[in-house]
């Protein structure tokens, strides 16, 4: 999760621990957005991975929390198929994953749910149990109302927040398999954090028990721990807890203590007697339907005493996670308040008020549910200092005890930090008091509909597309989108866990939940079953066009983006670089400050444009004619914003000037590590034949975006992944204008040569599951804009290069143009030779080198010996930033930019210039 300091610095919430203990969080790029780090009092594991989307330790939008599990459930349903999903049982782990398991069951839609518990219940027989070796409270009980719940033949879906060593899950499967053997298990986790040694255990275990075991996770990675981390962590915890003994939890960050405690109001929810409070004894699809029907009235009862509260926290209680989550989602839907959700916990964690630490504040209070293991402390994290106008404490009736209402109890502690505390009590479900008909349903029966949780016409906050609607929040019986049908819903790859932008604070960072990893079956997965009920997508907005968005004429390009021009997204280059390399941010979550060229640099741009205009015009003609000859007689040009967009406009102009064709042209976002904007693809498929779509970019470097596009389009049949580029110095594509590495002047500048549009933005609080990626229109830079001048200068040379284009195209159409990927090989070689060990920090070619100097923290520039005027602007920028330029005789590119490896702000001197390599 990204956090912002008072000085506007953006930091990862694991930085504090990582710097002090040498802990490294490595893996998928989204891992740092999903997880922060904290320390805890635990003799077996000092560090704690703190989820930003679980709703346990970090207050989060309830829709973000619910959707994190729901989308995993959709993927499990897709993996199993509807028939097998109907026979499955979902099992969640107490206490952390009880709500997550419920949400997974919602996505699966057809299966009953059960979670383990640490609370024994009189009169309910134990059907099983297991141990969680690293936990602070190790024993788990399984107490289903109907023992048949665990005795079926269908798959058992086990849900936990993280899959680290795998010991807990394997212990569970082993214990249950001995009593209730079955042929298939599916493990579901928000993050797969196993070490390389642990990854092989799952397949070995599956062979041992003779069952299939699949794994589905949102992201994967691992934690690298130094040998002395446990001792150092324990010492660090002891030191900081001793410092914290003098101030109490009554003090909010900044030392401001509330003088007048807030009021406490009990609210009668009217909870339906037939609905269990959760999955402790089983929760069926019928229960889910009954709860959905009752939620609007219960949320209305909560909303009334909230008054005009602008920021509300709904706080659940230990294992009671799903009921308060459902209430929070309904309150969020029915009010204008900014709603957050989290729960109390048994887990003791050190609190450190630092933006680089995941647990900023801690409230301590006595246990209030007469726990079987005796009295003890309980905790609520990141509540103090949260600036909540109202806090809704949701507990079950077993926890509505004198200890809850005591002077040092939970309610009193909450009242110290908010003017209004509402208490909502959910009846504790006890099976022997339940109606006799509430048993596990016959899962062979037809699929039962689950009521819609959110009105499909509810408006998304106005940013760029006022006609967008809020995605259906539940629809658990709706099928996984049919990927063969281009007009159906975008597959889950399209940022499924992202939510509607935050209504109250549009610039507030919500933890990144970018594209989840695909299911990771340890054995081959079966063929995917066809869905029974295709998901009907909400209407997407029409493309943005100039002059309202961009300085291009409206017919030149339609931007499949949402307008984020009013959102503050820029951050200093050095802060962005440190956050990106430290794993605390993705480059697409913020924007660099737009480079404003000096007069000398502007003169270089103009000179370069005049010198290279004919060469660029010829490349434009060649790539356009190749596309028309080989791809489609009337292609739909789709440029990759923003470097590809000027090229797409020029190709459109060539087709119009030389062939009389009026080709449609759109610009879409693609983000390295996160794929292409799937909603943009859905829009394109609804308006054009995907077979006619030709993706366009400016140039290839090492081919990372080329590979990204090919991988992303595997999920979208009908689209051709072959990209067309103006220049292909890396030999990564078949369709190109030239393979020379020369200066394309549009690479010299940023928005002022790209229609005044920023690089694209993908951030969870701004881009919801049914939004286009974002972008900004820098209207204020209009006086410096040369976008149209650049296009007109190139177009003016079309006639003089026409004959050369015809000859070159004729030659190319009969030539072998298969990519050799020699650029990628060169980058890998340079990465090792210069001991960078990260190809993402090596940017080959004139265009990419220019970007390094404009947007990143450069380390050094490698220039081919004898390179001439093509590098004049590179040399000028390097001189201005104090970056050395090293000439290399055998360089396959004209130049290569090296980003400062392992960058910290200490990598620049007092003058702001780069410090040379040590």
Fold and architecture overview:
The chain is of the alpha/beta class. Helix content is 29%, strand content 18%. It contains 22 helices and 35 strands. The strands form eleven sheets. Strands 3-12-11-10-6-7 form a six-stranded mixed β-sheet, with helices on both faces. Helix 14 crosses helix 18 and helix 21 runs parallel beside helix 22. The longest helix is centred in the C-terminal third of the chain and has 32 residues. It is elongated, with a radius of gyration of 29 Å. The C terminus is likely disordered.
Task: Note the main attributes of this structure.
18% strand, 29% helix, 918 residues, 22 helices, alpha/beta, six-stranded mixed beta sheet, elongated, disordered C terminus, 35 strands, six-stranded parallel beta sheet
Overall number of strands = 35
Give the overall silhouette. elongated
Whole-number average pLDDT? 79
Cross-sheet strand order for the largest sheet: 3-12-11-10-6-7
Low-confidence stretches: 4-8, 131-138, 246-259, 433-537, 904-918
Main sheet record: 6 strands, mixed
The SS-based structural class is alpha/beta
Q: Helical percent range?
A: 25-40%
**Helix count from the secondary structure assignment:** 22
Radius of gyration over alpha carbons? 29 Å
Strand-residue proportion: 15-25%
Give the N-terminus to C-terminus distance in angstroms: 32 Å
